Amino acid sequence: MTDTKKTAVIKVGGDVLLDKAEREGLAANIKDLTAEGWSVVLLHGGGPQVNALQEKHGLTPNKVAGRRITSEADLVVVKQAIAGEVNVNLTATLIQAGLPAFGCHGASGHLIRASKRPPVIVTGAGDKPIDFGEVGDVTGINAELLQGLLDLGQIPVIATLGVSEGGRIFNINADTTVVQIARALKADLLLLTTGVGAVFRDLKQPESRIAQVSRQQANKLIAEGIIQGGMIPKVEEAMKLLSEGVNSIAIVSGRNPGAFLSVANGTGESGTRIVD
Ligand code: X2W
User: Where is the signal peptide (predicted)?
Assistant: First the structure.
């Protein structure tokens, strides 16, 4: 099949999936992209769903520097929430919208290879190395298999789990993993979906949305505190891709009709686009 189709890789956070309108908006936006000939890969998390299931089982959620400290008991819950609940529901939502969604997880066909994250000293979390337990760092992506699914016209919907060569499963952070997938596929576009849906100079003023920034300007916005909090590592990590052939990265909400196509085409009507 043709390899001239453009590829979009989309990160969907667990928070986005809690709301029916968000899920349906996401499906409509993906439909717009595929109708314009884009190939689409989704990677999703499920942080809030893991928290809820942990609490139900009497476990206490504990995140350090954005990563969950994951015991063996926690990993059972992570698999249930992310590869079970969230993946099945998201795949079903896309199928209901008439899309050829292919639900899978990082261990399916060794899609996401990972190894155990070594204990590390984390700034602000004491002077002893922190062992994150069953948390992995991504070591490789099976891009051939993903491309094969895309060539078959499928939309891979991947639950963020990693697997070692020998089949050990790891909990992996979705934000860093999506960057690796975009890199491995040489994607044209990386979409980071968030509830807020863009970078605003002032969150209370919708008209202060920043439609497009260069990499240099984005660094300035980080320094000025306009891009802040959990968005900083996402944007910093993603921006590395701009020098590696990924044309643009966008922060966008699936809730807004037409948002994905708008950022894909650079019309400036929705989201925030970061370009080289
Ligand atoms: C994440 C995986 C889920 C995720 C976690 O356990 O929450 C680690 O922290 P969101 O919804 O995209 O935040 N893994 C190691 O990233 O979900």
Answer: none
